[in-house]
What we know:
Order of helices and strands: EEHHEHEEHEHEHEHHEH
Helix content: 25-40%
Number of helices: 9
Structural class: alpha/beta
Number of strands: 9
Largest sheet: 7 strands, mixed
CATH superfamily of the largest domain: 2-enoyl-CoA Hydratase, Chain A, domain 1
Amino acid sequence: MAWFSKEKKPLKAQKKRDVPADIFEQCPGCGEVLYRERLARNFSVCESCGYHLRISAEGYLSILLDPGSFEELDGNLRASDPLEFVDVKPYVNRIATAESAGKSEAVVTAAGRLDGIEIAIAAMDFSFIGGSMGSVVGEKIARACRLALQRSVPVIIVSQSGGARMQEGIYSLMQMAKTSTVLARLHEASLPFISVLTNPTTGGTTASHSMLGDVNLAEPNALIGFTGPRVIEETIKQELPKGFQSSEFQLEHGMIDLVVDRRDLKETIAVILRHQRVGWTE
C-alpha cells in the first residue's frame, strides 16, 4: 500500500493555447460552434441547420456580382443632420460612430454583371444605424435605378433594414415615395426589378421599394413585415400565429414569390432575369 505514503504533488496548470476570438462563431439557430473561414466559404450559412447569418452589403455584392465587374456608384454621398436631431446622443455622433466602422452609409450601390447579365444593384447594410433608410439611402437607390433606365438594364435591390431613419423625420419618409416613383419608371420601361428580402426587412423599407419587385425573393426564416410582432399583438390584443412574419409565412400567404437559399441566390436571379428579358438585352 505504498501509494498511501506517496508524496502528493500539486497539479501543475498547463499553459492554455491562445485561440483568437474571431476564429469561431456560434450559430444563432442551432448553437453549433462554426469555424469562420469555413462559414465564409459557405456564404455564412450554417452547414448544420441552414441558418442564414447576417452578412454585410459588400458580402451580398461579392456573392451576386461576377468577379471584376464591380463599379461602385455614388460612394461619396454622406448623410447630414438637417433637423439637428438629438435623442440619446446627437445624430451626427451616430453617423460618426457608424462611419468609424468603415461604412459610408446603410446602402452600397453598384453597376456590374450577374452571370454575365449587366445590372444595377443596391445592397443595404443593417450594421449602419440598423440599415435605416435616410435621405442618402433613398437618393443612392434612386440614382442606381436612373442609371438602369439609361443603360436599359435590370435592377436588383437587397433589403436589410429596420425601416425609415427617424432622426431625419419627414426627409426620411420622403424616400419611400422617391424610390417607389423611380421603380414605377422601370416598370413602364419593361426593365425587370428583383427584390431580395433578408433578415430583417421591416418598416418603411417594406412599405416602399422592398415589396415592389416584379419578383420578390426572400432568404429562409427572414423577418419581413411593417410593424414588429410585439407591437401588433399589443394593438389587436391577440396572439399571433407561430412563425408570423417569417419568409415562409409570407410565402404561404402570397406576400413573396419564392424563398431562396443564399447559396442558390445568384443562379436563381439569373434564371428569372433571362425569363423576363423583354426591354433589355445582355
